[in-house]
Amino acid sequence: MSIQFFGMPVSRGVAIGRAVLVASSRVDVAHYFIAAERVDDEIDRLRQARDTVATELGTLQRDLPEDAPAELSALLDVHLMLVHDETLTGAAKSWVIDRHYNAEWALSAQLEVLARQFDEMEDDYLRERKADLEQVVERMLRAMSRGPAGPAEQSATLSPRDFAGEDPLVLVANDIAPADMMRFKHSVFTGFITDVGGRTSHTAIVARSMDIPAVVGAREASRLVRPDDWIVVDGDAGIVIVDPSPIVLEEYRFRQRQSELERARLHRLRHTPSVTLDGQHVELLANIEQPSDAAGALEAGAVGVGLFRSEFLFMSRGDDLPGEEEQFEAYRDAVLAMRGLPVTIRTVDVGADKPLERMTVQELRHEHVLNPALGLRAIRWSLSEPGMFRQQLRAILRASAYGRVRILIPMVAHLSEVKLTLEALERARRQLDEAGHAYSQVDLGAMVEVPAAALSLGQFLRYFDFVSIGTNDLIQYTLAIDRADDAVSHLYDPWHPAVVGLIAGVIQRANAVGKGVSVCGEMAGDPAFTELLLAMGLRSFSMHPAQISSIKQRILRADTRRLAPALERVLAAENPQLEATRAFTSTLP
Ligand code: PEP
Ligand code: MG
Hints:
Glucose Oxidase, domain 1, 3 domains, alpha/beta
């Protein structure tokens, strides 16, 4: 029977496909598809994990002290029985063979299936055995993480035909770790649904960068949807329909075709210069996550990269973080791919909801720090790892020998951070001189993401060549709303008068002293804000390549001479959104 539920629409369009579930686990598990020739190896990894855990449990059982409670021995018996149960490892094997899931994913997928069966049991004793099953699986996952690693990188090259037949696939998960998102980036999914998350959680951002319809904060989705269910993801309205009726399906297929036609129409604008009706040139830049995204940026008509989120090079690597050489090659590749256009590389912004693997979200949330969004992230993290920071700065500087490079520092809040950054940059340059490496002049920019930076911008501007407003974080920190927490996502409001006022102030102050200013948060790629930002004096927008054409379309229709006078009213309004809708729509030709 068809069911329908709602979440937050975070990436436009309609996706229709079969559900693939990614279960959340207490152990940090990588999810990726393996190539056909790896199937036997992955099954071996499952077998080895099973045997290791059976031996561990056998040893524990044997070494139990004489006076140990009888329940303990009985419990170990249950665990041993579960380890050998065919419905666990045997069935997990089928996920590897039929779907080409990696061993960890297969095991946690099977845990999910069995856990649901346990939940439905009438008998209390049996129902409670679910916890034992979870512990056994956890042991096996840990055993796998100690054993030979799987070939995660292969996932990037797979196509649906390699593993799951011809049907399009929709990924359903409680949450998708940023590292998993990157693994799936060039993968096979046509839609994403998560139980948690908000408009600017990283699942949402990466989904938009992939131009794939997504709904987040759908609460019960991963519990209600079963593997292989047919699903419609309506990324415009935030609706998810499981097992749709033929009529509903036909309606959505029609909408899918319409939005493809609209995309094709907008795509034709990609080489049209981005100039308003009154002749104002507006720079449209791309946000990218890895060097291979640069090609898509050019193809979409971007005139440069306004934000290269370098932290994605650091994720899903365990302890093996990229060194100077590897980083240099990645930055150089992006620079070369942009063929002389500027590339703005942001120094690593890890922490909060983009943890390194060696600090899992759980660790960050519960063990090390209570509130990761306010903790050691972005420039704070870089300054706490000075060696790694200089290594990254050297790599970026070396890439500047191959094209136009700009460095962007995330989450600046204190002048002391600025001074330490300048010192680190100076030292990195000296080290390159000593080593005989070439580099060119690079502009240095600060992200304005913390209200403190916005409010004392004058002091910061002295030290920087340009600023870029990270509206995602600026909203989060101005309104005290964790951007990844769906429980407060209704309060995440880009139209809040305080937010709008801060953004206007930053743009005006930077323009007044002739320093470059752009917006690289999600507001830049949202057509609802284009006129507002133009009216504020913004002439540089950075966004996912997929959003460039629709923003350009609005710019081509805008007349800044008519927009500017309405700004005062919007800034003074109790409800800036309402006022902007009234004021700016009336300026359209
Ligand atoms: C922002 O905060 O607006 C931004 C662009 O940075 P990120 O989304 O990567 O935190
Ligand atoms: Mg940010």
